[in-house]
């Protein structure tokens, strides 16, 4: 059993995409990040960076004690290896998937996240910051579009964790100031993944989860963006 500690953000959706595709047995443990639940001691014990998602594998392959993991990229890699799917074993193919996974974790996610922050949540609208991150998001969309013009999926001919990592960050493309019509190969890929039954099941799991403090409210923003060296 995989215990998934989760909130319906792009990084959270990455993990439900894989769990649904791989058919792994899992339970969902909501962590309301707008209410500060990510700072609870029991969550910090498995995710010391106070960020979702995190998992606990109660039945690891070695038969030993449960394994806890945080960081979405590490979780995707671990679960793909556990299931034997969506991450090739051979070095050449595996390296293709992992480099695009790390591209998303180190590039697309952080830049789109800053796009969301300055364009939507920041109390002061700073034109330079908004323009900088909208442009950088567009550049990264262009990188992905070029790759998808050469391959059916992000890392080649097969659907992989590289696709699952990137897709949730393309879902809010309109909020990021992007028009998928400008990226036809990306648009083709996006629509194909959206139509997958496992994608639809994964996003359906998020339905009904709501926060007492909506993201963007003063109370939620204080929790999400007001952290210094010591949370709280």
TrEMBL record:
Belongs to the GST superfamily. This is Glutathione binding-like protein. Pfam families: GST_C (PF00043), GST_N (PF02798). PROSITE patterns: GST_CTER (PS50405), GST_NTER (PS50404). Residues 90-217 form the GST C-terminal domain. Residues 1-87 form the GST N-terminal domain. It comes from the Bacteria. SUPFAM superfamilies: GST C-terminal domain-like, Thioredoxin-like. InterPro entries: Glutathione-S-Trfase_C-like (IPR010987), Glutathione-S-Trfase_C_sf (IPR036282), Glutathione_S-Trfase (IPR040079), Glutathione_S-Trfase_N (IPR004045), GST_C (IPR004046), Thioredoxin-like_sf (IPR036249). CDD domains: GST_C_YfcG_like, GST_N_Ure2p_like.
């Amino acid at each position: 059993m995989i215990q998934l500690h989760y909130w319906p953000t792009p990084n959270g959706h990455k993990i439900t995409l894989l769990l649904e595709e791989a058919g792994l047995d899992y339970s969902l443990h909501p962590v309301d990040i707008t209410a500060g639940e990510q700072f609870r001691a029991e969550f910090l014990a498995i995710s010391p960076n106070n960020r979702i998602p995190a998992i606990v594998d109660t039945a690891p392959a070695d038969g030993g004690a449960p394994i806890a993991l945080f960081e979405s990229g590490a979780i995707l890699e671990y679960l793909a290896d556990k299931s034997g799917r969506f991450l090739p074993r051979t070095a050449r193919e595996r390296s293709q998937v992992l480099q695009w996974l790390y591209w998303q974790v180190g590039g697309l996610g952080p830049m789109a996240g800053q796009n969301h922050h300055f364009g939507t949540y920041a109390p002061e609208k700073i034109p330079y910051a908004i323009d900088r991150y909208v442009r950088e998001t567009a550049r990264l969309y262009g990188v992905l579009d070029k790759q998808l013009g050469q391959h059916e999926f992000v890392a080649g001919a097969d659907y992989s964790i590289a696709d699952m990592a990137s897709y949730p960050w393309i879902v809010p493309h309109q909020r990021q100031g992007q028009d998928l019509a400008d990226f036809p190969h990306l648009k083709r890929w996006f629509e194909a993944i959206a139509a997958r039954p496992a994608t639809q099941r994964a996003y359906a799991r998020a339905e009904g989860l709501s926060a007492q403090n909506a993201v963007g409210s003063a109370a939620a923003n204080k929790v999400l963006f007001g952290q210094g060296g010591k949370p709280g």
